[in-house]
Structures are given as C-alpha cells and as structure tokens.
C-alpha cells in the first residue's frame, strides 16, 4: 500500500496514524519511505542534485528519475521480504511519485511518454512490486507549501529542495496525481482529504476488509 501526495501533504503523519490503526486491528505492518537518502547511494546523489551540489545533474528529468528508480530497485528484495512477513507494507512515495514529478517537470500529463517510460523502467525492467492500493493525500498547493515552509523553519537541516521550492511544479504535479487517481494508474487509488486528515480507524477497516 502506497501513500502519495505533494511535499507537505502530510504523508508521514498519515502513515503513522494508519500504522497505529492497522496494528490496533491485529495487522502486522512494515513501513518504508522513498527516497532513502541515508541508505542508498542513488538517492544520496539525487539529494545532492536537488540542492545544487551535483552540477547540471538536477536539470536532467530522466537522469533524476533514474536515480530515484534505482533507489527502489535496490530496495526491491527487502520489500518482497517485508510483504512476505507482514500483513501490510506501507510505503511513503513510490513509482507514482517519480512519474508525477517528472511528467510535471516536462509539462506532460498522465498519458504522456514520460509516465510510460517510468512505468516500463520500474515495473517491466526493474520488476518492482506493483502496489495493491494507492492513497492520494489531496491538499491545495498553498497548504502544502505552507507546511513545507513551516517544516523548513522548525526542523534543523531540513531546507526545501529544488522541487519543494517550485510552486509551479507542485501545482502541475498535483494535477498529474489527480489524473493517476482517476485512471487507477497501476492499481486502484483512494483520494483522501489531506487538510482535515483521514479517519485512520475507518480507513484501516476499509483497507483490511
């Protein structure tokens, strides 16, 4: 199960609440978040690029997407082991994040060539597990931006990166995410209110039904 949304949508908060609710219903839960900046060299290089520390690497949409995809490829065996050992594997950001942000950078929609390239690379070529369900935390871009700015002020060393600071990119990414949900891209999507926050207990009951 995957949680997707803009930077500042509240994915980590919802993941924590949903984990507690799932475990309260007797389910075993494993959690993972991408990019794994402190655990994988590809993600580390992508972070360098996002903060302008890797020359012109950050300008390459396909290059950045490939680094994020390679991070997931390196985690694939661990994900399969977690799926086998737990009732639920809850992932913060996954393939759709790569596809949405890259498509938005190129001013493409969900049916564009970039989205298909990400799908064929990560699913067909790398063999990554396809999620059973994807949850989209829908928030106005301004709300997400305000949350990201607040996090930047209150968390030492957590300055916004090039993607988080680009309001136009965030708006276009939100539009692609909405298209993914409407198309059930890769798997069924559930759109949640990211402002009020979902009812974690009710959501857990629905997911385990």
From TrEMBL:
- Segments carrying the region annotation (Disordered) are 146-166
Q: Which InterPro entries does this chain map to?
A: P-loop_NTPase (IPR027417), Thymidylate_kin-like_dom (IPR039430)
Q: Which CDD domains match?
A: TMPK (cd01672)
GO MF: dTMP kinase activity
* UniProt feature, compositional bias: Basic and acidic residues: 146-163
Domain named Thymidylate kinase-like: residues:
3-172
Q: Which domain of life is it from?
A: Bacteria
Any one Pfam family here would be Thymidylate_kin
Keyword Hydrolase appears in the UniProt entry: no
Cite the entry's keywords alphabetically: ATP-binding, Kinase, Nucleotide-binding, Transferase
* UniProt family annotation: Belongs to the thymidylate kinase family.
Q: What is this protein called?
A: Thymidylate kinase
